[in-house]
Amino acid sequence: MRHAPALLLAVALLAPAAARGEGPSPAPAEGAQARPPALQVTIDRSKVDLKNRKIEVKLSRAAAKVRLKVLGQSGAVLAEEETPFDGAAAGTPLVVTWSPASDETVARIEVYGHDTEGYWAGVAIVPWNMRIPHEEVQFETNSDVIRPSEVPKLEASLKKVSELLAQHGEIGKITLFIVGHTDTVGSVEHNLGLSRRRARAIAAWFKGRGLSLPIAYEGLGESAPLVTTADEVNEPRNRRVDYILSVEPPRLPSGEASWKAL
């Protein structure tokens, strides 16, 4: 049986995993069979369901099986599963589930795809993220300017972010994601733009104060309220900004929303 000589662990939900780190292969000897292209394993970010403990995997060649190894934040192995797929065609969505030994928070999921020719490749998912509790910055109406009176709130948030980075920096490449929200006063288009500008203003403030980790931002306007209201309702709890530390980009609603690097 032929096996790939190494496993590349990619800390990205959609990153392909090349099981080989080789340069161009030499021309095969006469009569020898050429090596097939490297097996690719991909995972659909939108189909990663930690609550129901299942993910969707695709292989670039016919699939024999998929193996999972689920690790908790303590480093303990929470589950090891192997699911056969009996030669499912390349590109077929392969749903894999697991049953954990405990309710410990998942820190890492290693995914190994095996094709029907005896090759394998793998990726690792790091689903860790943490929302930062904070006091909301108050902006003037229709403004994205951070007033001097609001700076102490941001300084307190910066301190929390720095403390959490010191505690969890070994997890991987962490990014600060900032997402803005509004209430329903004003048009949908106006609120979307306003929430995006305010999120960017806060991201720029953190960057300007020397926060060295990557920062991304987006605004969702009134589309994801904390409190559901009718239109044109002035609801302070919906005028908020979320701060999220995460290795993987948090999922955004479908449509035009996308994370923007500062």
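^ that was protein a. below is b, sequence first then the tokens
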Amino acid sequence: MVELKTDAELAVMREAGRVVAQALAAVRAEAAVGVSLWELDEVAAGVLAAAGAKSSFQHYHPHFAPTPFPAVICASVNDVIVHGIPSDYRLRDGDLVSIDFGACVDGFHGDAAVSFPVGTPRPADLTLIAETQAALDAGIAAAVVGARLGDVGHAIGRIGRSAGYGIPADFGGHGVGRAMHEDPSVPNEGRPGRGLPLRPGLVIALEPMFMAGGRDRYVTDPDGWALRTPDGSRAAHIEHTIAVTEAGPVVLTAL
């Protein structure tokens, strides 16, 4: 069931979103050659503690995973698309890193992700990140009252397909609210004019995930969490939680 949020609930979600934005900014500032993924997780955990917020990710146990998630961030490097578990891996020059993070404030969640290079960037990675960001921006712009979810998915997917990237079909955006994942599902492709009508108070996370190799297939790591490109090509993942309002889409996970 899709739950529309009141203005008061949106205000709480905006506070959760600010915590998410602060944590992602802090992690990105700390990410450098030689820093481990666990150290980045500790940075995000520190932001949560300072804000008095709870992690949306830690101990989360969806049906597809064999174990609960053990960290507060998802840290996906190079050919890992999403859901990478932080480890002792130390960042190397030229790595492409995607960090996904969620925070809960007063019972409401915010969820966002960023992708960025570490050290000397590869030009192809910068293009991949830019196209993923452009797709997110297009999806946000399409999320207006009277449009449909298919319009949002189409706006995102056409940019990825035009650039020749692969899109993992089984994973995309979702509703956000009292739970981190709520209805509706928000695919990264869609047919214009089809799907759920967008109404004021709808809160959704839009999260394009593009794979540079151009194929849609992915493989799951033995840990049951990380999704990886089967050809070793790199991937980017960028996300915001937004609210559909009469005045237009509002990004809740911004500073």
